[in-house]
């Protein structure tokens, strides 16, 4: 059986940003562990730091998306990206089949690239769409696609089946971006549903118990398969070996300095701060965070990407060296799994949230854009594993607000309750991806169905 399944060869194609690459690497690894042959194909103009030809049993192919990043608007990039993939993918798929001796039977593509379904059909292959973000935000986009929510939205709060009522600042930011430079992204996220009912499988990076009501509601529209949380299973039980790699990183993590620094702190004493791979904060906001962290009296480990460093207050990192460490990129999973970390101040990217939930770390939510405001709503009001920072009338989160909320999570009764809730979600996440769990079963079913075509 195992040998037979290996003859099923699947190509997995992420959208080329870190927050989409990471979960699709993990999905590829899980498929390989179920006996499928898997090739991960990344079209990107950025260089992958760890330019592996393989990640364990997953073969990796990195291809230039031919994009000149100097001359860009979001809309231009998206058009050119689609044109390049459409031109290069069909031949590549055929060649991968020939060179491996196992023809490809299915394309698993990021739902941002719904048009790959056409390519799969032209090649006579099965097609699976992989939604990297929460079922909650995807339901909002689905409602827009179906015309149930009309943009521009005029009345708040908004009702979406399976979700609490959402105020304007709790909706994905793109719904407010019709006239801005991000309007092509609103089209992109809504177009995830163009052929939603035609794809052979819909995978969602969530787990049943985490988003039960909204998963059940979306199920009334078509069958969907929650397969998350897509984070390396080794971290789910805090078995930290010398496994430094999430997979393919676009940034270089300061592994040793983070780990050494954390090792010398008390359990639960550190606030880990990160805004992911894309968010860019204003200078005034960076200063408020800096002074707020210092006022909180807590130890802090703050990821400030190289491109953002100039926004830090002068000499802040040096002057704070007794209490804090600032790095350009961290090994986030290992950091969150470290016993010294007491809470995570996060921009609420979906991967960061799944990682924190799976490792039982409570959060201070500071959403920036895209899906993050909706994710923050779930953290604070649905799962009750954190608090959301509130901006002042100028849209700034002040140092006082930051200090207060950080203390709420790190200390006192509310913090204890959030920690208990975080532990509960950690167990449920482990159960979903463990053997026989709901997400694991969905992956098994996919592998078995593909294999049965070869019987
Ligand atoms: C993007 C979007 O912004 C996010 O809202 C969406 O849900 C997914 O795509 P990003 O902003 O980078 O992603 O955030 P997130 O989803 O949290 O992904 C970041 C990934 O980079 C995580 O897997 C995290 O572990 C990793 N990371 C982040 C590091 O390894 N080191 C760091 O220092 C910071």
From TrEMBL:
* PROSITE patterns hit by this protein: UDPGT
Enzyme Commission identifier(s)? 2.4.1.-
Task: Give the pathway listed in the UniProt entry for this protein.
Answer: Pigment biosynthesis; anthocyanin biosynthesis
Q: Which sequence ranges are marked TM in the entry? A: none
- EC supergroup of this enzyme: transferase
Residue ranges annotated as coiled coil are none
Q: Does the keyword Transferase belong to this entry?
A: yes
Q: Which GO terms describe its molecular function?
A: anthocyanidin 3-O-glucosyltransferase activity; quercetin 3-O-glucosyltransferase activity; quercetin 7-O-glucosyltransferase activity
Q: What's a GO biological-process term for it?
A: anthocyanin-containing compound biosynthetic process
The UniProt keywords, alphabetically, are:
Glycosyltransferase, Transferase
Q: Where is the Glycosyltransferase N-terminal domain?
A: 9-40
Catalytic activity reported: an anthocyanidin + UDP-alpha-D-glucose + H(+) = an anthocyanidin 3-O-beta-D-glucoside + UDP
Classify the source by domain of life: Eukaryota
Q: Which Pfam families match?
A: Glyco_transf_N, UDPGT
Q: Which InterPro entries match?
A: Glyco_transf_N, UDP_glucos_trans, UDP_glycos_trans_CS
* PANTHER family documented for this protein: GLUCOSYL/GLUCURONOSYL TRANSFERASES, UDP-GLYCOSYLTRANSFERASE 74E1-RELATED
User: Which family does the record assign?
Assistant: Belongs to the UDP-glycosyltransferase family.
> What's the protein here called?
Glycosyltransferase
Organism, per UniProt? Answer: Salix dunnii
Source organism phylogeny: Eukaryota, Viridiplantae, Streptophyta, Embryophyta, Tracheophyta
């Amino acid at each position: 059986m195992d040998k037979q399944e290996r003859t099923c060869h699947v190509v997995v194609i992420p959208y080329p940003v870190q927050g989409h690459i990471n979960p699709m690497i993990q999905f590829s690894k899980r498929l390989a562990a179920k006996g499928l042959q898997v090739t991960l194909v990344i079209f990107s103009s950025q260089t992958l730091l760890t330019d592996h030809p393989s990640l364990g049993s997953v073969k990796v192919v990195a291809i230039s998306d031919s994009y000149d990043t100097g001359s860009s608007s979001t809309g231009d990039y998206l058009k050119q990206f689609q044109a390049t993939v459409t031109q290069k993918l069909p031949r590549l798929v055929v060649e991968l089949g020939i060179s491996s001796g196992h023809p490809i039977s299915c394309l698993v593509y990021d739902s941002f690239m719904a048009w790959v379904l056409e390519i799969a059909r032209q090649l006579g292959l099965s097609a699976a769409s992989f939604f990297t973000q929460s079922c909650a935000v995807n339901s909002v986009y689905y409602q827009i696609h179906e015309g149930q929510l009309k943009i521009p939205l005029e009345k708040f709060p908004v009702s979406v089946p399976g979700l609490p009522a959402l105020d304007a600042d709790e909706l994905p930011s793109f719904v407010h971006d019709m006239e801005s430079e991000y309007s092509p992204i609103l089209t992109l996220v809504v177009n995830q549903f163009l052929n939603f009912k035609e794809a052979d499988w819909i995978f969602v990076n969530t787990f049943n118990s985490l988003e039960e009501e909204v998963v059940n509601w979306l199920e009334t529209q078509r069958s969907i398969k929650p397969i998350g949380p897509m984070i390396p299973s080794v971290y789910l039980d805090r078995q930290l070996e010398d496994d430094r790699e999430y997979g393919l990183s676009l940034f270089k993590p300061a592994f040793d300095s983070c780990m050494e620094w954390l090792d010398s702190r008390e359990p639960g004493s550190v606030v880990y701060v990160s805004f992911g791979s894309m968010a860019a904060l204003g200078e005034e906001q960076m200063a408020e965070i800096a002074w707020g962290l210092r006022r909180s009296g807590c130890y802090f480990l703050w990821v400030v990407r190289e491109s953002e460093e100039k926004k830090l207050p002068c000499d802040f990192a040096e002057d704070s060296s007794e209490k804090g460490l600032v790095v350009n990129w961290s090994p986030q999973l290992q950091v969150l799994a470290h016993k010294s970390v007491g809470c995570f101040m996060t921009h609420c990217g979906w991967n960061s949230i799944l990682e924190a939930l799976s490792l039982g770390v409570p959060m201070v939510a500071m959403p920036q854009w895209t899906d993050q405001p909706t994710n923050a709503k779930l953290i604070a009001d649905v799962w009750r594993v954190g608090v959301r920072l509130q901006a002042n009338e100028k849209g700034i989160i002040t140092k006082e607000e930051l200090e207060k909320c950080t203390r709420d999570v790190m200390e006192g009764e509310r913090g204890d309750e959030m920690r208990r809730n975080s532990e509960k979600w950690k167990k449920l996440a482990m159960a979903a991806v463990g053997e026989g769990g709901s997400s694991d079963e969905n992956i098994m079913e996919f592998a078995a169905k593909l294999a049965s075509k070869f019987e």
